[in-house]
Target: Lcl C-terminal domain-containing protein
Amino acid sequence: MYTTPADAPATYSWNDGTFNYTNLSMADCTNEPPGFAATCQTGEANTAFLVGATGEPDYPFAAAEYCDGLTAHGYSDWYLPAQDELDVLYTNKNTGDLNGTFNETGSFPAGYYWSSSESTDFNGRAQRISDGNYDDMDKNEGLAVRCVRK
Model:
């Protein structure tokens, strides 16, 4: 798995930034890594689902749309990582070229990163990179985004 060398230039909401919450037809990811549901592990599939969910009342799904539309470093196959993939980034945050590239202040919202995993109708899974803590965050919150590819 590869990641962009820096965070997205702005924070993004998980959904369209409103209180139009929907429990999508993807399995909820409700436990810490490693997650039991496939959606805890498959960011590429989650992102494709979210980008294609045009009929949902809280579409577009901004964080997933950002990664899906990203062209960087000669590649255009970026996606929003699933919970377990985001945890791999956390585990390796101080390794090699990743060292010092994440917001590790623990501050809200910049120190929290979205995953493409949904946990409830109101929440998506997010991780605080400073200490690895996972939280269910309101989908309309603007959080940091780091895109990945395989």
About this structure: The chain has one domain: 2-149. The CA atoms of residues 20 and 58 lie 5 Å apart.
